[in-house]
Amino acid sequence: MTTQELLVPLELYLKSGLHIGTKFRTKAMSPFIYKIRNDGLSVFNVQEINNRIRLAAELMKQYKSKDIVLICRRENGWKAAELFSSSTGIRIYNGRYPPGILTNSNLEDFIEAKLMIVVDPWQDKNAINDAIKVGGIPIIALCDTNNDSGKVDLIVPCNNKGNKSLGLVFWILANEYVKADGKSLKEKPEDFMAEE
Asked: In this structure, what are the phi and psi dihedrals at residue 17, rounded to the nearest 5 degrees?
């Protein structure tokens, strides 16, 4: 793995803990696991994380920001999600997902999304189920080793529980997304990864 192939330096991936999974592993996530540490924690293949983030960014670039929605029930990702939104113009829902916003056109805050990103397929399952009901909405999911990914279209394997790892994923996705318009983020990865 060379530095040119990576979206960010390897040290940044490792420093953020993006590659450290849980002790529990689902069958769906086993192809992304590089090894099991002595303490039982799973370790993701960093090259595969990088490749999947690149795929997610390429998919995002096919849509306008108004057509993408990010769902983040996990509190550790809220600050990074807000920076992601302000950098890209992509709508986010931090905390509780508002039921029916994708499926009930009579609601005042109804939206027609064309791409959904979720931080955790388990915690964000209601949003995923609504996207499936509507049909035709691809779903990108950040999945840890303990996630089931049967309902998502693109798995991005990563530690989806830490604020540093989520911050790094959001920074990379935002940076790659704005690059398509010839822009660059004024924020550094550390800004997205900072603890409150």
From this structure: 75, 15
**pLDDT confidence tier of residue 192, bands split at 50, 70 and 90:** very high
**Cβ contact 121:152 at 8 Å:** yes
Domain count, the chain: 1
Integer distance in angstroms from the first to the last C-alpha of the chain?
Answer: 33
Closest CA to 120 of 78, 90, 82, 148: 148
CB 79 within 8 A of CB 163: yes
pLDDT at residue 3 in the model: 47
Is 32 domain-assigned? yes
Domain span including residue 95: 3-182
In this prediction, residue 46 carries a pLDDT of 95
Give the number of other CB atoms < 10 A from CB of residue 124.
Answer: 25
> Which CATH number does the domain housing residue 41 bear?
3.40.50.10490
Q: Over range 175-196, report the average pLDDT.
A: 89
Mean pLDDT of the region 72-84? 95
Shortest CA distance to 23 belongs to which of 41, 35, 38? 41
d(CA 163, CA 80): 8
Q: How far is CA 90 from the centre of its chain?
A: 13
Q: Is position 188 within any domain?
A: no
Paired strand residues for 46: none
